[in-house]
Design a protein that fits this description.
mainly alpha, 2 helices, about 0% strand
């Protein structure tokens, strides 16, 4: 009977240690995934900024067509005015 109890305790300790090790591994994987997530969010922010910069550069780019440039600038001004009106509301 005492030997059975000792055996069961040993099994429980072994199971606990195995689960504890699994938990440690999972915590490390979670930490790595969170780091990657932060990196990806930063990359997305950087890429969105690059897109905005390229769109702005394209809008003001001298393409040899003054009428087209004026039209693009006019559209940008209208969009800015619309945004200002929305902010004032």
């Amino acid at each position: 009977m005492l030997e059975d109890i000792k055996s069961n305790i040993a099994k429980l300790v072994a199971l606990y240690e195995a689960e504890h090790q699994k938990a440690t591994v999972l915590e490390e994987r979670l930490r790595q995934c969170e780091e990657k997530s932060l990196e990806y969010k930063k990359q997305i922010t950087d890429l969105n900024q690059q897109i905005a910069n390229l769109e702005l550069m394209h809008a003001f780019q001298a393409s040899g067509d003054p009428a087209g440039s004026r039209e693009r600038i006019g559209k940008l001004i209208k969009e800015i005015d619309r945004c200002i009106k929305l902010l004032e509301s």
